[in-house]
Structure formats: structure tokens, C-alpha cells
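Table S2 (text version). Query chain:
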Amino acid sequence: MKILTTAVCGLALAAVQAASMAPITIGSEAFDASFGHIQGACCTDDAIYLTQMKCLYKFDWSGKLLKKKSVISHTGDICFWKGEIYTSVSVYGGPNKGKGMIQVFDQELNLVRETLLDRGTDGITILDGVLYLGMGSNHVPSKEAHRENWVGRFDPMTLKPLGERQIIDFGYATHYGIQDISNDGKHILCAFYPAVKGQPEFIVFDKDLKVVRADCTYHASNGFDRLPARFGGDHPRFFRVKTVMSPKNKAEPKAQRKLSVKIDFFEWVDGKAVDITAQP
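Corresponding C-alpha cell output:
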């Protein structure tokens, strides 16, 4: 299996301490294009983890595939906390139609524990020992434009809820729920799909779920996560995932298009995403 990467000899520590960071491209050989776009992302000092609806992947920082595991369809966002990977699952079909799950894996992608929830879930992150979970729209179906989304708080060890879930009014229309969540160590950062092109695609709230700002147009709904401290920076640094589809084949318009991934980088400065990706 050949994995392509634009980072020569990987993403060395000396390189990431520079003002900009070289992008990483993971070739189509790593993915099953029928699973659709990348859903979520998280990272450790040694690895990048991605989800793609039916599969959980582990890569090193050069873009080399280390391991993959089939998971429930569809698995969405993921986060890392205290040696474990937490996945947010929208469960479709069978007796669990309309329900969701939190699943927890070790770093070798072995399932450790899980819990079934009463509704589908989306973005997930853990800040100061509290698991924050997007729980979709309070409208059914959630694909219709809506302003309000549910967010729940859970104990990351027991997976039990911590109080009542809360409705957050974004102030403008969105589609579906909060797709991907991370944090900057103080605030919760959320990426979602806007209902109208040109509207904000990012919302930030504090640990008490109070909206801090909701005017960022940065697109990160295929997954993003905060980088470990060793990656440097005067401000919190993040990586962002972009799903790249190969061009359509005019001779075979219904043929499956190949899927690859580009990873770029940004710093979170005064409520704005500042691109720090090195340009070719």
C-alpha cells in the first residue's frame, strides 16, 4: 500500500516549530470511497485518528496508515482523552434506528466501553473532565433549516449524563447538528453546516454552554482537533481535515470517485482561525 504525503520524511518536530506547517496528503489507497467524506478527527503526539462513516483509522504523522477498524455506521466525530478515543455515533437501521451512541476505544482501536443514547449524536470533545456531545437538532428531521441544537454533558468514564441537555440557539439557520467539536483549553469550538451559503460555520461557547461568539466562517466540518503542546505556537494550534474527491469520469458519470485527504493547520487567535499552512 502506497500512502502519499507532502511532508518530506514526516512532520518533524523542527518543522512544526516554524511559523508555518507543511500540509499532509493521505492518498486514496487508504480509504474506501463508498464510505463518503471524513467525519471526524483527533490526534496524539504520535498519531492521527480519522473516522469515515464505517471505519476508524490510525495514521502516523507522515500519513502512513497504521491500523483501521470497521465501526458502526455511521460513526461521526471523535476526540482523544487520557489514552482513549471517544467516538460519537449516529446509529441507523435495526432496533436502534433514531438512536445514538458513545463508544470508547484504546489507541490500538479496541472497543473498551459504550453506551446507547435516545437520539443520534454528532460532535464530541472533552474539556476539564467533562464530555461535551452534540445531540442533533431539536427539530425532526434535522436536515431542515433550524437555529437550535442540543448539547449534552457526560462523565467520560461512566458515560452517564451530567444534568439536563441544553438547547443552544446559534442565532441563524443551520443544517443537521454540530458536526465536529474541539476546544482551545478554555472554550468549546464547534463546526457545522450553514443553511445559507456565506453564513458562519463555526460557533464558540464556554464550559457552561454560553455562546461566546458565532461569526466565524472557517469551514472545518470534516474534522479538526487541537495539536499537542509539542507542536508549538503562541496560540492554540489545530489541524483540519479536508476530503478531496477525484474529478468525475465523463465516460462513466456514475463511477465511484476516489477519495483522498488533505490536512492543513491553523491557530486560534482572538476568536479567529488563522491559516498557518505552508504554501508550496
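Notes on Table S2: The longest strand covers residues 166-183. The chain has a mean pLDDT of 89.
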